[in-house]
Amino acid sequence: MSLDEVQVVPLTTASDLRRLQSLLGKHHYLGGLKPVGERIFYAAVDAPGNWLAVLVFNAAAKHLKHRDQWIGWTQAQRDRRLSLVANNSRFLILPKARQPNLGSRVLRLALERLSTDWQARYGHPVLVVETFVDPEQFHGTVYTAQGWEEVGLTDGSGRHRRDYYVEHDKPKRLFVRELVKNARRSLQAEHLKPALASVEKKAGARCYLKGTELRALTQHFRELPEYRERVESYPVWSLVTLMLVAILCDAPRGQKDLAKLARRLNQHQRGALGIRPHPNGRFPAPSQSTFSRCLAKLDAKILNQLLLQIQAKVRGQPPANELIAVDGKKPRHGPGDAILAAVTVPSQFYLGSAVVDTKTNEIPVARELFGELDLAGRVVSLDALHTQDQTARELVLEHGAHYLLSVKDNQSTLRQNIDNAVPVPPTGFSPSDHDAHPGPEAGKEPGRC
pTM of the full predicted structure? Predict the structure, then answer.
């Protein structure tokens, strides 16, 4: 048989996969396997289509010290980008097909197409591959011949459950290889390339706070009144702390996303949050409906006061000379009330917020929110919806504030009056010329814009 005739093809049919598992169980020293998550199965065939070898590539190992050091990424980057690494978990040359250089030929052909096949099946490529070699069984010659690099030994333990590992006292040699140029540089970069961004989005956020840190966070919300007569697994202060954790972890904050983040917490973290264990001793994760009920029943005013207290402890007091921007936000996905919030710019200190329900709009809600803020001597910015005589009058006369209000073409008379009163600034001037071209506020009375 000529090696030039050998091809590597993916296996997709149920009969081919059963045949592969049967061959692994009969001829591979580790037997068959049932990989979870993303995976691709290959067979090497000759010109007539006879099977010569089989390979399995699947999700990479979660924790490998030497691989992570070789890549140079952080723990957070590893958790978000691990799907860009694949593990060659099985490679079997069938007994009747053994001949010199066949293993190198098969492995090279598989690696040449692996990333493209992965992209077609899962929507993203593979940048790095890894594999384990048992030093009592093999020397890893076929991997070394194909440019794989040995980076160390595993610690001799295997994953038994999500947060539990069992020692088996059989360390393996770890081999790794880049499939594309500068793969490690991409994996350790602050931001992935746009073509790979979907990988991090799918992976979601994780919490890296320790138990002591989580317990300290829960103390801020102990004053929240409980909205249920009987609490079983999730005290209200525990759920609200988890919502704050989502903000600290830069995770999405919808009910579904909160439940997803909760499931990714380990048992120690869940216990530190105050979640009560089941009779079997395991700490459960709150569901999407649990968060939905909590958000609907929370005492918003008390929660707002607690959030301001936490911010003051962590960041101090908001700058007294910064612009206050008041702006409304609507949920991007699914139902929910719009929120009108006041923040300082550019420091982004949170000052307060109010719910805009479906029975009203932002205009009266903003005027009510003004009364809860200290606006004396401050400049308040709002969008064109709030360009109203009464809003401007209340800011100046009742709260002692200045205002910046946008004017659009639908307020034609006001727009024309401004155009007549304020000269249009010359175009093309540089920022360095700003002092020579004072803005429209120069020489105006406070509160006028």
Answer: 0.65
